[in-house]
C-alpha cells in the first residue's frame, strides 16, 4: 500500500498527461484540485485491486465532455460526491474504493480528489491504460460490465441518473445531458465488485504514471535528456514495451473545434526539411500520418511533447508555432485483442485503416 501525498501529485499529473495521448482533460487543473483536496482531507491510500474484497463496491469517476470547455468551466470537487451518492443510492451499497476509468490527464486526477473527499482508497489501475473519448471504450465494458447506473452531475448541483439497455445508449443519452450542462460534467458509472474489477481493470497504471512523471522530473533536474529517460523506461513496463520518436518539428497548422461534446481537429507539424505529419484528434490523438500513410494509429498511443522539456501537451493546449516531438507508444496488450479492437480500434473512430501495431510500422 502506498500513500499519495501533496509531494507526489505533480509527478502523477505529468505521467497521466503522457498516458492520456492528448486527452483526459488539463492535468494542471487536476493537479491543483488534488493538492487542495489532500490539504483539506488528508493523503489517499493507493491499493492493489487484489486487496479489495470480492464483494466490495468500486466506483469509477471522471469528467465527461469537451476538454477545451473544462479549461474554463472548472469543476468544484463536489460534483463527484453528488454523482457517487446517486450511484450508491441506486445500487443500495456504499463504495469501498474509487478507480479511474482512464489514466489520462484530468481524469486520472479526479478520482484522487473524490477518494480524498470521501476518505476512501484509490485502486491502482484504470479501465483503459490510456485515455479514450467515449463511455464504451473501457475494459470494463469489453469484459461485459454494465455501465448502469450512470450518474451525471454539474457544478450547480444538478444530477441525473440514467439506466440504459446498453452502453451505446448511455453514451448517446449521457452526451446529450452533458451538452445541456455546458459540455462538461462529472460522472460516476460502471459500479462493480472487487471480483469484477480484478477481472477487467488495467492494473498498476497509477504507479506507472507516477514513475513516468518522476523520471521526467529527475532527468530535467539532472540536466539529462528526458526523452532518452522516457524511451529507455517504457520498454521495461508490462504495457508500453514498444515506443519510438516519430517526428520533431514545429506546429504550422491547427484546426480545432468543439463538436457534439468533443474537442476535435487536426494538427500539422513540419520539420526543418519541410517534411510534415498530420495528427487527427477527438479529445485524444488518434492517428498520425506522413505523406498520407498512417505511422501510428489508435489504440496505440500518440504523445506530443515539448521538444525541450518533454512535457506532454494535451490537444486543447496545442498552439501554432510550438516546437514539439511526437512519440508513438504501444497500447497495453488488452487493447489489442480482437474484442477490444471492435470497441477502440480504428474503425470505432470511422477510419478505414486497419490496425497495425507500431512495432510493425516502418
UniProtKB/TrEMBL annotation:
InterPro entries: S-Me-THD-like_C, S-Me-THD_C_sf, S-Me-THD_N, S-Me-THD_N_sf. Residues 8-163 form the S-Me-THD N-terminal domain. Residues 169-358 form the S-Me-THD-like C-terminal domain. This is DUF917 domain-containing protein. The lineage of its organism: Bacteria, Pseudomonadati, Pseudomonadota, Alphaproteobacteria, Sphingomonadales.
Amino acid at each position: 500500500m502506498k500513500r499519495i501525498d501533496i509531494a507526489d501529485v505533480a509527478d502523477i499529473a505529468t505521467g497521466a498527461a503522457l498516458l492520456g495521448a492528448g486527452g483526459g482533460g488539463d492535468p494542471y487543473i487536476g493537479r491543483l484540485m488534488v493538492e487542495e483536496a489532500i490539504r483539506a482531507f488528508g493523503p489517499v491510500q493507493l491499493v492493489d485491486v487484489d486487496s479489495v474484497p470480492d464483494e466490495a463496491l468500486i466506483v469509477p469517476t471522471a469528467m465527461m465532455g469537451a476538454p477545451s470547455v473544462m479549461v474554463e468551466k472548472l469543476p468544484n470537487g463536489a460534483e463527484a460526491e453528488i454523482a457517487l451518492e446517486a450511484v450508491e443510492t441506486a445500487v443500495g451499497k456504499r463504495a469501498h474504493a474509487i478507480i479511474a476509468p482512464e489514466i489520462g490527464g484530468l481524469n486520472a486526477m479526479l478520482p484522487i480528489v473524490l477518494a480524498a473527499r470521501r476518505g476512501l482508497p484509490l485502486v491502482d489501475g484504470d479501465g483503459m491504460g490510456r485515455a479514450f473519448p467515449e463511455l464504451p471504450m473501457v475494459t470494463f465494458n469489453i469484459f461485459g460490465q454494465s455501465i448502469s447506473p450512470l450518474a451525471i452531475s454539474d457544478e450547480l448541483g444538478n444530477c441525473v441518473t440514467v439506466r440504459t439497455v446498453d452502453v451505446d445508449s448511455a453514451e448517446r443519452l449521457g452526451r446529450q445531458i452533458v451538452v445541456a450542462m455546458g459540455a462538461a460534467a462529472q460522472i460516476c458509472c460502471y459500479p462493480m465488485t472487487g471480483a469484477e474489477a480484478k477481472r477487467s481493470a488495467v492494473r498498476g497504471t497509477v504507479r506507472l504514471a507516477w514513475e513516468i512523471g518522476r523520471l521526467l522530473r529527475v532527468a530535467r533536474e539532472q540536466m539529462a535528456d528526458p526523452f532518452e529517460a522516457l524511451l529507455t523506461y517504457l520498454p521495461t513496463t508490462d504495457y508500453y514495451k514498444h515506443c519510438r520518436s516519430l517526428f520533431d518539428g514545429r506546429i504550422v497548422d491547427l484546426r480545432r473545434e468543439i463538436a457534439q461534446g468533443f474537442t476535435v481537429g487536426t494538427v500539422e507539424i513540419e520539420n526543418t526539411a519541410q517534411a510534415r505529419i498530420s495528427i487527427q484528434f477527438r479529445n485524444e490523438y488518434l492517428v498520425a500520418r506522413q505523406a498520407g500513410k498512417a505511422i501510428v494509429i489508435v489504440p496505440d498511443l500518440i504523445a506530443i511533447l515539448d521538444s525541450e522539456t518533454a512535457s506532454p501537451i494535451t490537444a486543447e493546449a496545442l498552439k501554432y508555432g510550438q516546437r514539439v516531438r511526437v512519440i508513438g507508444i504501444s497500447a497495453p496488450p488488452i487493447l489489442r485483442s480482437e474484442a477490444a479492437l471492435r470497441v477502440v480500434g480504428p474503425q470505432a473512430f470511422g477510419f478505414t485503416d486497419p490496425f497495425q501495431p507500431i512495432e510493425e510500422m516502418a
